[in-house]
Design brief:
Layout (H helix, E strand, L loop, with lengths): L2 H13 L2 E2 H10 L5 H4 L12 H4 L1 H17 L7 E5 L5 H9 L4 H6 L1 E5 L3 H10 L7 E4 L11 E6 L8 E6 L2 E9 L5 E5 L22 E4 L1 H17 L1 E10 L9 E4 L2 E3 L9 E3 L2 E2 H10 L3 E7 H7 L2 H8 L4 H12 L8 E7 L11
Parallel strand pairs: 2-3, 2-5, 3-4, 5-10, 10-14
Antiparallel strand pairs: 1-7, 6-7, 6-9, 7-8, 10-16, 11-12, 11-13, 15-16
Helix pairs in contact: 5-6, 9-10, 12-13
The structure holds S-adenosyl-L-homocysteine.
The site of S-adenosyl-L-homocysteine has 18 residues, from α4.
Length: 358
């Protein structure tokens, strides 16, 4: 077991088993040894690759989507562009470059990046050093003031938020916890059965067979509710893109990934990325509870096609047609990122339908 694993085991010895959400928070964000606190996980040499790292078209189309929404909403004054978990800053750099086509939007923007990782923040500063507009960083979404309409991007952010797992057993629903086994290693263990009223499960779970696993992200749901409330309060829009499902399938999706391969969740905390598929139905309900209108989710392929990825690809193709065709295929094909990845839009209740969702 590594040093962070030993610290977690000591914590469990002192306080009892911890929830998977607590384990994920420590493994991802511990200041000394947490996964995001200590490295750049992205790219071919890293642990995983994301859409903006695959193709510049991704960020460009999202930037133009935001500008179109802003125009459709009557060009509200002083728009703010917020990105949650901007990674290397690639998406934002591509979006801001494309937004030179809409200078009235670009010039007015207050750009705010929500990032916890000091390593990634440094990379973001580099990518955005010549972007032509001032940018600033905050560690938490909640600290952003409700004083301007905001246009929010979250790509592969919600999958990194902590989840809890509930397992259906003969005795009822139990929470899966992280504990320590007899040999001192971290191991999963079930809590005693939980009373029905204490379960966060909104969907019809009565018929779920024994062995079903329900994953719930308290952090994700409360953030989606905050975003819904924010958008309804000050105007704007949010686009959330991630891998996930539209209806919970009662199967587990928590995964550890290192060097582009699946790894064990518990054996070396802090050295692999932990994530879970996003429950879009839960985000949709939460954002509506916040007061906003929600569109989607629709497949990433359908979304990017509606935004004109084919036309953009044609213009870029002159230099290297094979490379561009491969990028389009990766982002939109149903066997690649086209349907597993989904887009969800959150807008004020009486705002026009956002582009791509009509
Ligand atoms: N959006 C980027 C990066 C995705 S990786 C891309 O598409 O390439 C997840 C990002 O979210 C990283 O930047 C990570 O540091 C950040 N992050 C994860 N959890 C966070 C949290 N709780 N608060 C703020 N940022 C977080």
């Amino acid at each position: 077991m590594n040093a962070l694993g030993q610290r977690i085991a000591a914590l469990i010895a002192a306080q009892g088993p911890m929830s998977i959400a607590e384990f994920m928070t420590i493994a991802l964000h511990d200041r000394e040894a947490g996964y995001y606190a200590t490295r750049d996980p992205l790219g071919v040499a890293g642990d995983f690759i994301t859409a903006p790292e695959i193709s510049q078209m991704f960020g460009e189309l999202i930037g133009l989507w935001l500008a179109q929404v802003w125009q459709d909403q009557g060009r509200p004054k002083n728009p703010r562009l917020v990105e949650l978990g901007p990674g290397r800053g690639t998406l934002l750099a591509d979006a801001l470059r494309a937004l030179k086509l809409v200078p009235e939007f670009l010039r007015a923007l207050d750009v705010v990046l929500v990032e916890v990782s000091p390593v990634l923040r440094t990379l973001q500063e580099k990518s955005l050093s010549n972007c032509g507009v001032p940018v600033r960083w905050v560690p938490e979404f909640r600290t952003i003031a409700h004083d301007r309409p905001f246009y929010l991007i979250a790509n592969e952010f919600f999958d990194a938020l902590p989840i809890q797992q509930y397992v259906k057993t003969e005795r009822g629903w139990c929470e899966r916890m992280v504990s320590v086994d007899r040999s001192g290693e971290l191991a999963f263990a079930l809590s005693p059965p939980l009373p029905e009223w204490s379960l966060p499960i909104a969907q019809n779970r009565a018929g779920a067979p024994n062995g079903s696993v329900y994953e719930f992200s308290k952090a994700g749901v409360s953030l989606a509710e905050d975003i819904g409330h924010f958008v309804e309060d000050v105007g704007g829009a949010a686009i959330i893109i991630d891998y996930g499902y539209d209806v919970p399938g009662f199967s587990e999706t928590l995964q550890a990934v290192a060097s582009h391969k699946f790894a064990d969740v518990l054996s070396a905390p802090g050295s692999s990325d932990l994530s879970a598929h996003v429950d879009f139905s839960a985000l949709r309900i939460a954002a509506r509870q916040g007061g906003a209108a929600v569109y989607g989710p629709i497949g990433q392929g359908e979304f990017l096609t509606a935004l004109g990825i084919a036309q953009r690809a044609e213009r870029l193709s002159r230099a290297d047609p094979q490379k561009i065709a491969a990028e389009v295929n990766r982002l939109t094909n149903v066997d690649q990122m086209g349907t597993l990845f989904k887009a969800l839009a959150i807008v004020p209740k009486f705002a026009p339908t956002p582009p791509g969702f009509g």
